[in-house]
Amino acid sequence: MSRNKSVLLGCLSLIISVAVAGPEWNILSHRTKDGLSISLRNYCESWRMNVELHNIREFQVVPEECVGYIGKYVTSTQYKVDSERAIEEAIVYLSTSCNLEKDGKDAWIFDIDDTLLSTVPYYKKQHFGGEKLNLTSLEEWMSQGKAPALENSLKLFNEMKARGLQIILVSSRREHLRSATIDNLVDVGYYGWTSLILRGPDDELMGVQNYKTEVRKQLIGEGYRIWGIVGDQYSSIEGLPRAKRTFKLPNPLYYVS
Ligand SMILES: *[C@@H]1O[C@H](CO)[C@@H](O)[C@H](O)[C@H]1NC(C)=O
Questions:
Q1: CA distances from 68 to 72, 190, 197, 252 (A)
Q2: What is the pTM of this model?
Q3: Nearest Cα to 19, choosing from 67, 69, 64?
Q4: Domain 71-248 fold
Q5: Any signal peptide, and if so, which residues (predicted)?
Q6: 179 CB less than 6 Å from ligand 1?
């Protein structure tokens, strides 16, 4: 086969696979079903927005045609600004709407991954969510304890400490990662939390949302007032009992239910 021909065939198969992967996006016509002329960027921005709005759920991988866009987003200034805004709103809430009793029972819950620590360096090697989750390789990466801090979250964490809130970390990471997780957190500047709750074998039998609501039930039973949660997944903030307020950080890389 001539070189040109094979290049042409390669392009054609790419076009076909892209067209199949995105039912509402036709790369040949650059039009939606309704005939609106859009770019791939429009399509992927809309995918990302609808993930954040929780209209798109349970996705296993980032759509192939949007991997480039999502990779750019999570490494962009926009991602930092979006996260910073969420954190600023949490600080506004703390300053204006929380009458803390300062009796050691005012609590705040944080997720860990993509809330306090960034997994973007790992997902960069997994085509920014374009590949299905491989728990073995993700846990190998986590056990190295090299995840960087999300700087705005560190700021909020320290603000909470200064205000005397009890900081409770609730993560779907498994127990065997406890010491690696503590080392990683301390290395990048997080210390002084009240408790670090990870998933034990029994917790693994239920979904992450159930596990996290059970943890809240227990905390409330112990007399804690949960003023807020910061998390990057809806499974961290939805379900009963609720926190008084919740703050969602952007995460278009993966979905945890
Ligand atoms: C998952 O990751 C492990 C460890 O890096 C690797 O050995 C294994 O082949 C991977 N599995 C798949 C299905 O890619």
A1: 6, 32, 34, 12
A2: 0.88
A3: 64
A4: Rossmann fold (3.40.50)
A5: 1-21
A6: no
Q: What are 210's two structure tokens?
A: 């159930």
Positions in the chain short of pLDDT 50: 1-22
Q: What's the pLDDT at 234?
A: 98
Give 121 Cα–ligand 1 centroid separation in angstroms: 17
Q: Which is it for strands 225-231 and 106-110: parallel, antiparallel or unpaired?
A: parallel
CB 198 within 8 A of CB 184: no
Q: Output the CA 117–ligand 1 centroid distance in Å.
A: 23
Helix-then-strand count for the chain, H and E: 10, 5
3-class DSSP assignment, residue 68 = helix
Alpha-helix runs per DSSP H in the chain:
3-21, 40-52, 67-74, 77-97, 120-124, 135-143, 151-162, 178-187, 208-221, 234-237
Domain boundaries, the chain: 1-38, 71-248
pLDDT score at 25: 59
Cβ neighbours of 134 (radius 10 Å)? 11
